[in-house]
């Protein structure tokens, strides 16, 4: 496995430079289709059948294509490899901050999250083909264009793929200390709209209903939810209202982030937020909340524990230490777990500083982590169905 992964390293470097050199921020459809074209070419070269499915957000705005590569094996287990093609960076970032290598690390937009992970998944497929270790029934590589915005268009397809997969191995890169990811918090993005009544702040303020004041009071009430349930966090990350000091503002808008480790607490916190929004904070101000892209917690369970044990077994054989952790960030792994698949994440190379100008990928980790992923696919393929 290590030797075969090493034989793919030069191609991995070349592909990584090409992918990172194309802007593919969420919603930048032209760039997303360019990177999908590149990955499609490499999947076909690896002997995979390729499908492309255009997806759109709930309003109908195009988000790009989901790419699905499939390869049949000799066995019966269906193994899903899941990664994403989009980044958080706007057009122009690839030119302003181009791909570079320094002191054994690669830098550039999306180098770790998740272009390096997608390419590790593809390299693992190539390793297994080269070694004739195709004991799976079907190996499916899915690459979405909208993970960074909650997979709003890809969700139905991910749930379908997850419902028929025996195992989902997710290609987000390993944590910066090398940990795999065995659980993720659930997340809900909440938009609160408050409507009051405008008035002159000096002549007749009593005729107004201050939406900004209501939003401020609601912010304090929401912040007080932190600590009510273990591991639940509520963050008001944006509040906008008014534009003149002499006008009682009649509108306000809040964006709120809710996260929780467990479904019970997640649902309880969401219900409490709805109650607080419905409760009048200022007479004459009405508020309503919209929940965007709710993503349930991915909680650890027996099937996931078995996967971490298998990964540790494979790692021991390769001389690659394997540890794992839970993380507060959510990903497509949450949706695949909700669909019923056994899930393990963080199976790309080691990387860090995601979503920042300092994002990096440890190039020395590419070969051992590719071998670990290929070995885990092989081990799962041979295991008895849970």
UniProtKB/TrEMBL annotation:
SUPFAM superfamilies: Bacterial exopeptidase dimerisation domain (SSF55031), Zn-dependent exopeptidases (SSF53187)
Any GO MF annotation of the entry: metal ion binding
InterPro entries associated with the record: ArgE/DapE_CS, Bact_exopeptidase_dim_dom, Pept_M20_glutamate_carboxypep, Peptidase_M20, Peptidase_M20_dimer, Peptidase_M20A
Keyword Zinc included in the entry's annotation: yes
Keywords in alphabetical order: Hydrolase, Metal-binding, Zinc
Domain Peptidase M20 dimerisation: 183-282
Cofactor (UniProt): Zn(2+)
Keyword field contains Hydrolase: yes
Enzyme active site: 86, 147 (proton acceptor)
PANTHER family found in the cross-reference section: ACETYLORNITHINE DEACETYLASE, BLL0789 PROTEIN
Protein name, entry field: M20 family peptidase
């Amino acid at each position: 496995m290590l030797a075969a992964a090493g034989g793919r390293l030069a191609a991995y470097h070349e592909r990584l430079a090409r992918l990172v050199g194309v802007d593919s921020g969420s919603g930048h459809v032209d760039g997303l289709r360019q990177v999908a074209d590149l990955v499609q070419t490499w999947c076909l070269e690896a002997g995979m059948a390729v499908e492309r499915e255009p997806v759109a957000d709930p309003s109908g705005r195009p988000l790009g294509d989901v790419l699905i590569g499939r390869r049949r094996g000799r066995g019966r287990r269906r193994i899903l490899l899941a990664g994403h093609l989009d980044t958080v960076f706007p057009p122009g970032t690839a030119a302003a901050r181009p791909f570079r290598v320094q002191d054994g690390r690669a830098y550039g937009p999306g180098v770790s999250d998740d272009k390096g992970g997608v390419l590790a998944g593809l390299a693992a497929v190539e390793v297994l083909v080269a070694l004739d270790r195709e004991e799976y029934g079907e190996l499916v590589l899915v690459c979405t264009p909208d993970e960074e915005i909650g997979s709003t268009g890809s969700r139905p397809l991910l749930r379908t793929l997850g419902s028929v997969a025996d195992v989902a191995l997710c290609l987000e890169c390993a944590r910066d200390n090398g940990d795999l990811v065995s659980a993720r918090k659930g997340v809900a993005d909440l938009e609160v709209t408050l409507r009051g009544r405008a008035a002159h702040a000096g002549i007749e303020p009593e005729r107004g209903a201050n939406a900004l004041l209501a939003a401020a009071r609601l912010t304090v009430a929401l912040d007080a939810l932190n600590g009510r349930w273990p591991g639940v966090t509520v963050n008001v990350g944006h509040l906008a209202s008014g534009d003149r000091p002499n006008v009682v503002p009649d509108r306000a808008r809040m964006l709120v982030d809710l996260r929780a480790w467990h479904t019970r607490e997640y649902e309880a916190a969401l219900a409490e937020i709805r109650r607080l929004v419905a409760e009048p904070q200022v007479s004459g101000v009405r508020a309503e909340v919209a929940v965007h892209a709710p993503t349930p917690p991915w909680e650890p369970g027996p099937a996931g524990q078995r996967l971490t044990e298998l990964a540790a077994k494979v790692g021991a054989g390769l001389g690659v230490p394997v540890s794992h952790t839970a993380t507060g960030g959510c990903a497509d792994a949450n949706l695949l777990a909700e669909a019923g698949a056994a899930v393990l994440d963080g199976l790309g190379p080691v990387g860090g500083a995601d979503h920042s100008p300092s994002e990096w990928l440890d190039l020395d980790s590419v070969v051992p982590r590719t071998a670990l992923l290929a070995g885990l696919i092989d081990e799962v393929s041979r295991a008895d169905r849970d």
